[in-house]
Structures are given as structure tokens and as C-alpha cells.
Design goal:
- By secondary structure, the protein is of the alpha/beta class.
- It folds into three domains: about 5-145 and about 265-325, FAD/NAD(P)-binding domain (3-Layer(bba) Sandwich); about 150-260, FAD/NAD(P)-binding domain (3-Layer(bba) Sandwich), CATH 3.50.50.60; about 345-445, Enolase-like, domain 1 (2-Layer Sandwich), CATH 3.30.390.30.
- It contains eleven helices and 21 strands.
- Strands 1, 2, 3, 4, 5, 6 and 16 form a seven-stranded mixed β-sheet that branches.
- A hairpin with a 2-residue loop joins strand 4 and strand 5 (about 120-125).
- The longest helix has 25 residues, at about 80-105.
- The radius of gyration is 24 Å and the shape is globular.
- The relative contact order is 0.13.
- The model has no long low-confidence stretch (mean pLDDT about 95).
Length: about 450
């Protein structure tokens, strides 16, 4: 008989927590996972999955117009937000059920309560029940940051945006990161007047400068408004229910909805981590070593609650590696180099490896190859919108160290190309590959 109630107790049933629970159980561990909201976490319930479905819905706005140039007699079409919203939420319900079934099939006990840490081997549920575990895994993810301004309670975050009663006619999106740009494209295509407000002067910091400049150019051409270097002062709610965002300088902006997309904070508050001596960094992220172990020997953490990459596939890999290491007798760690990422903006962009600026800092001399072209579909549709592909190469070795692109289906194309960059292939390897014609992806092997 074990001296503990469980071999593993997981707090948080998101992508990382579910993977860790399932794999640990498959290795023979007795596992429980506590989730205070819904199984599936941010990605499935209120993040990348429902957002991507909204993005698919938004694409029909231009696709229906373009269809006329391709011979289809498409009438003027109206859009019903509630139909899309309810169908998306229905799909979220279905996926949550699948996640629950996966845990049940692996004999993982799912406890639908909030759990907090009481010590190196102890947790306490909201109901008052106390449980012991040989190992505790924190996988509570991250939470949207709400700016500290007067009237902030009148704004919403990405948590609430999927549940709106109606599509706004005017929306202000505060932020310049991937969430802000994705929702800007979504609501613009749904017919809303969109204004993006950014306290800085750049969009999508961390992505290649040429690629993000192209997104800004295209977004402005489409009619999305931008307010840079804007310091918010307060939000006023008017008698008719509409909102007005005031700034320290400059004219206020009226809106039906104000969406905060100003970053995400690790969800570590109130977990009782101090009772076990778990160390946090200055942003509240849990400090971990290369095997996801915290400063407490029996407590581990994976996913967005840690001080690593906030990406769902990374959390999944971390959860899997943790379970293999601790319960599978196979010490594994995650390789964070060359992790591809995408922004499902309109159009989408994607990148892997080093940006041009990063490569110059690391290697000194680099070669840059680009293709700036109008996709064939855009030509016949009469759209001037251009795609941009960019390859960054270490001049001394001919090795491709970065690949960045913006244009239709860029994330789908980049996933395969990321394998080549991760494998360390050279520009000559790309050149030696016969083009697949006619396609947008062929530009990758034709770069000059």
C-alpha cells in the first residue's frame, strides 16, 4: 500500500495537464486531476480552437465576394453571429467530452473542484477534502491581463468574447499581439468597425519586422484603424450602454465592445505554492528546471504557468516528457529550439527559427532571400493583396536559420517547411527540390 492517496495529482486539466495525466496513467501511476472550470483548458474551451473556428467563419466574407469572379452567382449574404457562436460553442462542448472520455478511459480520476497546494505532498479541494500525492503537477495555464484603469470592468477579454449576445458594430481591441491581431481580422470580416489601440509603436514583437510590417499595411488597406503610442486613461459607460475609451492625449474612441488583449499572466495566484516553497519569477511564473521540476522536489509544472513558451503544443510536449521522466523511467526534456508559431490574422503569418535581426546578432553575416508575390487566387479575384516569403541563411554555412511568411495558408505551408529548418537543411537543399507547380508553397524552393 502506498503512503499517498495518488501517485500523481494534477491541478489543471488543460492541454499539458491532460497529456501528463494520460501518459502517467498509461505508465501505471494512480492519477487524479482537478479542474475548477472545464476539461480542455484555454486552447479547447476559450482559445485557439474556438478562435480558429471563428476565423474560418470570417474567411467566408471575402470568399463569397471572390466567388463571383470565378463564375458563381452568389447573392449578397447576411451574417448571423448567433448561428456561428452557437455552433462553435457546440463544438467546444463536443471536444470537452472527448477530453473527459480520454481521461476516463485511462482510469484518471477527474475532480471538478478547485485544488490548492498545502505542502510538498498535499492538496486541498474547495469542498474541504484533503488529498496526498507522491508527485504534484501544476498545469493551471495563464489568464488574460486586464489593464488597471478606471472603468476596466466594462471591457472584456478573450475569455468572454466567444459568448457575446451580438456581433458589435464598433469594437476597440487593446493590444498588439497575436490575440489582438486575430480578433481584429475576425470582427472586421464580420462587418464591425475595428480600431486597434497599442501602448507601443509595434505590432507582434518577436516576429520578423518585414512580415509584421506587411500585416500592418494590409490591415490598414482593409480598413482596420490603428492608434499607436496610446496611453489609456479610463473607460466611460454611457447611458445607452455604449462605451467610450479616453486617453491621456488624443480624441476618445466610442465603441460597443472594448476587448483587452494585452497579454496573459501565469495563473499561479492563490494556489498555495508558498506552502511548499515553490519559487516564482517576477511575473508570477513558476520556475522549473529542464525536467519541469520546481524548487520543491515533489512538485512539477508544465505549460503557460511556467517561465517558458506559452504555446499549446509546447505544453503537450512538456506534459508528455514529464510523465515519461517521472513515471516511465525514460528521462526526457523538451527541445525549445526552432519552435514554429503562427498568427491567424487576416491574412495569416507564420515563422520558425531566427528573424533577420536575431540572425545578424548571432551569426554576423547572413543572406536573406525573399519572394513578394500576388497569389494566383488574388489575381483573378481582383485583390491587390500580396504575400511575402522570407528565408534567412547563415552566410558561412548556407544553413537556413529562419523562415517567415505572410499570405494565404502560411501556417499550413510553414509546418512542413519547419521540419527542414529544424533538420538544419541548407539553401542549396531547398534549391535542389523540384517545385510543385502551380502552388504558393513552390516559392520556398524558388527564392532568389
Amino acid at each position: 500500500m502506498s503512503e499517498f492517496d495518488f501517485d500523481l495529482f494534477v491541478i489543471g486539466a488543460g492541454s499539458g495537464g491532460v497529456r501528463a495525466s494520460r501518459v502517467a496513467a498509461a505508465h501505471g501511476a494512480k492519477v487524479a486531476v482537478a479542474e475548477e472550470y472545464r476539461v480542455g483548458g484555454t486552447c479547447v474551451i476559450r482559445g485557439c480552437v474556438p478562435k480558429k473556428l471563428l476565423i474560418y467563419g470570417a474567411h467566408f466574407a471575402e470568399d463569397l465576394k471572390d466567388a463571383r469572379r470565378f463564375g458563381w452567382n452568389v447573392p449578397d449574404c447576411g451574417f448571423e453571429w448567433t448561428t456561428l457562436r452557437d455552433n462553435v460553442l457546440g463544438e467546444v462542448d463536443r471536444l470537452e467530452g472527448l477530453y473527459g472520455n480520454t481521461l476516463n478511459s485511462h482510469k484518471v480520476e477527474v475532480i471538478r473542484e478547485r485544488a490548492t497546494v498545502t505542502g510538498p505532498h498535499g492538496v486541498k479541494l474547495a469542498s474541504g477534502r484533503e488529498i496526498t500525492a507522491k508527485v504534484i503537477l501544476i498545469a493551471t495555464g495563464a489568464w488574460p491581463i486586464v489593464p488597471e484603469i478606471d472603468g476596466a470592468e466594462h471591457g472584456i477579454t478573450s475569455n468572454e468574447v466567444f459568448h457575446l449576445d451580438e456581433c458589435p458594430s464598433r469594437i476597440v481591441i487593446v493590444g498588439g499581439g497575436y490575440i489582438a491581431n486575430e480578433f481584429a481580422g475576425i470582427f472586421h470580416q464580420f462587418g464591425a468597425q475595428v480600431t486597434m489601440v497599442n501602448r507601443g509603436s509595434d505590432l507582434l514583437r518577436g516576429y520578423d519586422e518585414q512580415i509584421r510590417d506587411r500585416l500592418l499595411q494590409i490591415s490598414m488597406t482593409k480598413g482596420i484603424n490603428f492608434r499607436f503610442n496610446a496611453k489609456m486613461e479610463r473607460i466611460e459607460k454611457r447611458d445607452d450602454g455604449t462605451l467610450c475609451l479616453h486617453f491621456e492625449s488624443g480624441d476618445p474612441i466610442a465603441a460597443d465592445i472594448i476587448l483587452f488583449a494585452t497579454g496573459r499572466r501565469p495563473h499561479s495566484d492563490g494556489l498555495g505554492l508558498e506552502t511548499a516553497g515553490v519559487e516564482l519569477n517576477e511575473k508570477g511564473a513558476i520556475k522549473v528546471d529542464e525536467y519541469s521540476r520546481t524548487s520543491c522536489e515533489s512538485i512539477y509544472a508544465v505549460g503557460d504557468v511556467t517561465d517558458r513558451l506559452q504555446l499549446t503544443p509546447v505544453a503537450i510536449r512538456e506534459g508528455h516528457a514529464f510523465a515519461d521522466t517521472v513515471f516511465g523511467g525514460n528521462k526526457r526534456k523538451v527541445d525549445y529550439s526552432c519552435v514554429p508559431s503562427a498568427v491567424f490574422s487576416h491574412p495569416p503569418l507564420a515563422g520558425v527559427g531566427l528573424t533577420e535581426a536575431q540572425a545578424k546578432n548571432q551569426y554576423g553575416t547572413v543572406k536573406v532571400y525573399t519572394s513578394d508575390f500576388r497569389p494566383m487566387k488574388n489575381v483573378l479575384a481582383g485583390r491587390e493583396e500580396r504575400a511575402l516569403y522570407k528565408m534567412v541563411v547563415d552566410a558561412s554555412t548556407d544553413k537556413v536559420v529562419g523562415l517567415h511568411m505572410i499570405g494565404p495558408d502560411a501556417p499550413e505551408i510553414l509546418q512542413a517547411a519547419a521540419v527542414a529548418v529544424k533538420a538544419g537543411l541548407t539553401k542549396q537543399d531547398f534549391d535542389d527540390t523540384v517545385a510543385l507547380h502551380p502552388s504558393m508553397a513552390e516559392e520556398l524552393v524558388l527564392l532568389k
